Amino acid sequence: MSFETMHTLRKAPEVTPLFPELSVVTTLRDAVTDDGLPVPAGARGTIVEVYADGEAYEVEFASPVAGTATILAEALAAA
User: pTM for the full model?
Assistant: First the structure.
């Protein structure tokens, strides 16, 4: 097999998100749920969806507010 053929068939490297689905995370900044409720910094939630190879996440919160919010990766830390 030639180099050109191997290069053509090569797959792009897969990006591994910082947090996989169902990871428990803590917010580093205040956020707002999809329903418009405030989520304070330090709230714990669970990742339920990963967007754009981990650039943003849908996080579900049970307390202090119940709801989901889309949050950028830079605003989250592992819990």
Answer: 0.81
d(CA 64, CA 44): 9
Contact of 68 with 60, CB cutoff 8 Å: yes
For residues 61 and 7, what is the distance between their CA atoms, to the nearest angstrom? 45
- Per-residue pLDDT reduced to its tens digit, 40-77: 999 999 999 999 989 999 999 999 899 999 999 999 99
Q: Which residues of 44-68 are buried (b: 16+ CB within 10 A; e: fewer)?
A: ebbbeebeeeeebbbbebeeebebb
Tell me the C-alpha distance between 46 and 4, whole Å: 44
